[in-house]
């Protein structure tokens, strides 16, 4: 009886582990896509709205997808809370907090970080250029991530459960 | 005798699981890992079977008085 219970626990835990890995793979393209849309909104806010950075970030946070909203709302909050902080520093802080909870890769972090260093320190045309560059890079990362997800999600879902079953069978 | 029937079922189970894992890994383009899994399954089954083979050889030796 207790042996059966242990076997069920091994299968369940390895299955959940596999599903977690698969979840990371399937979450990343979605987050990248909504990040691309959000950056597009930010570009609109900067180039046509000509709003303050704080207001622009708040607007984007209100309208963009729930998955990436914390990145923008936190940056806006930091900008409005700490007097004297630059937009780049606020973006950096917000990015660090967001990265830990997201499914993004280190490459995505590099793209967003290099975008942050040019945010809010130059004229509209220059910022739009940097935003366009980041959007292009995110788009290409998204294409890669979708290919990876198509290959790996199913694989890890099966691999977790089958690996657990194999361990149970070998140790039983 | 019951024990060896259990062993046969265990080997069959490992065979099925390894076959499915191999198919999935191959479909995902990870053929090297598929080979590794197949090899690992083979090794595990051999470890189980070799113990029984040793008993068989001991019996053969004792039948023909080859000590």
Descriptive overview:
The complex is a heterodimer of chains A (172) and B (67). Chain A is mainly alpha-helical and 172 residues long. Chain A has one domain. Chain A contains 6 helices and no strands. The longest helix of chain A is centred in the N-terminal third of the chain and has 48 residues. Chain A is elongated. The model of chain A has no long low-confidence stretch (mean pLDDT 85). In chain B, α1 packs antiparallel against α2. Helix content of chain B is 88%, strand content 0%. Chain B has 67 residues and is mostly helical. The longest helix of chain B is centred in the last third of the chain and has 33 residues. The model of chain B has no long low-confidence stretch (mean pLDDT 88). Chain B contains 2 helices and no strands. At the A-B interface, α6 of A face α1 of B.
Strand content of chain B: under 5%
For the record, the count of structural domains of chain A works out to 1
**Chain pair forming the biggest interface:** A-B, 13 and 14 residues
**Rg of chain B:** 17 Å
Query: What is the mean pLDDT of chain A?
Result: 85
Radius of gyration of chain A: 21 Å
Beta strands of chain A, count: 0
Indicate the overall shape of chain A.
elongated
Looking at the structure, what is the overall shape of chain B? elongated
- Mean of all residue-level pLDDT scores of chain B: 88
- Main sheet overview of chain B: none
Helix content of chain B: over 70%
Helix-strand string of chain B: HH
Biggest sheet overview of chain A: none
Helix count, DSSP H or I runs of 4 or more residues of chain A = 6
Q: How many beta-strand runs of chain B?
A: 0
